[in-house]
Amino acid sequence: MRKNTEHRIVFASLIAIGLIIRFVLAPFTTGSDIAQFAGFANTFLRHGICFYKYSGSASFIVENWPYNWPYVYGSPLILFLGLLRLFVPDKVIHYFDTLGHYYVYVPMDWIIACKALFILFDALSAIMIYLIVKRIAGSGSKALLGMSIYYFNPMTIYVSSIYGMFDPIPFFFLLASLYLIINNKRIMGVLSMGLSLVIKQTMLFPTIYYLLYTLRSGGIKRLATDTVLIILPGLVFMAPFMLCPGSINVFLESLKSVSTPAYTYPISYSFNGFSSLATYLNSVYGSDTLWVMKDWFIPALALTLIYVVVLAWRGGDPLLSVVIGYLIYIATYWRVNAQYLLPAVGVLAIALFHPAISGKTRIAVGTSIFLIGFWPIMFPTSWWAHVHIRNPNMFIWRLLDFLSLMIFDRLYYVCYSILLTLTLYVSIITLISRMHRSIM
């Protein structure tokens, strides 16, 4: 009884400490996306279910967005943002000065509102990792460690609480799906996976790999059932919006515009090593290296083929299939941003404690986690403490300066992203080699 009480105290303390860290940083830092989210939310409140008709880059001046970025996500996010905007209508200030410099300032109330949502799902994701690790490893102490690896990773804190991006939301529903599936609640689990996908399309790869596992383990009938269940949340949330004339075309054009391969600027924010190197060679030497980005699918298909062969030959595991799917996505896709690495930390933390994983695989997985967490320490993170904050908090600004190596040279980030990508490849290959030892 005493041991259980102590365990609960440690668990609650870790969650509380994580929340304190996040809420100390959150009000006084913000990335550019939170400013853009205010514009999207305003457009949704004006146009309702016809939102997607006005969600393309062409609408940014009329709709008074600070940037010309299109909205390319599923409708659940805009429903969240629209609800927040009803209670926090403070305007984002954006203008050019007389010298042509562009300024964007985000009101603190809107920063807090958005980040409170992201931080909530960040904490829920940490709790879900705890439950998954405890279930597969059978150890409360390992569950606490797995949760902490995710919850206190600098990249996790950066994404949810400094820059401010909504990836903890779809990631939570992906984790919930895994927890339900490994506890033999497949229907609810697959529906949750579909919900994660409709929130953000970055969950497509893990979904596909789960379906490949389903085909191997349950046959065509199970695959058909699970596919329908995954599609169902998308139909429920997207169909009302897509019925508005013109919405589908704008949405598809927006998706095409952001998914068309291009050089990955800024290099410091690019996490595909091959894309970063190609972009660097083009910018410094004028080399025509765009083919590297255009052919990103070749290594993705090669790794997928290895996965399929091992799956067909030796069987697989639903949890590791999802982990491998997400890792292949971030290791191969032509453009990988910092926020995509938050789910990567989480799935790697789970893999670290999977009973099928050996010592050598743990080294590769642990190295990947470390490298992901090292980037916010390299990057001059304090940039987000003043670039969009009209009256910066100097304590937070200086604190982030103190915690950062303040590296500006692009070449360091090229070398870093190459090392990260290669480490992810090693992690993927070793995880594939162990996935036949299923927990199911």
How does the major sheet shape up? Answer: 2 strands, antiparallel
Rg calc:
22 Å
Strand order of the largest sheet: 1-2
Q: What is the overall silhouette?
A: globular
Which structural category fits the helices and strands? mainly alpha
Estimate percent helicity.
55-70%
Number of helices: 18
The termini sit apart by: 30 Å
Order of helices and strands: HHHEEHHHHHHHHHHHHHHH
Annotation, overall tally of beta strands: 2
Write down the overall mean pLDDT.
96
Low-confidence stretches: none
- Report the portion of residues in β strands: under 5%
Structure at a glance:
The chain has helices spanning 2-25, 32-47, 75-87, 108-137, 140-151, 154-163, 168-182, 186-199, 204-242, 247-259, 273-285, 290-294, 297-314, 318-332, 341-352, 359-378, 394-403, 410-434; strands spanning 93-96, 102-105.
Core attributes:
440 residues, two-stranded antiparallel ribbon, globular
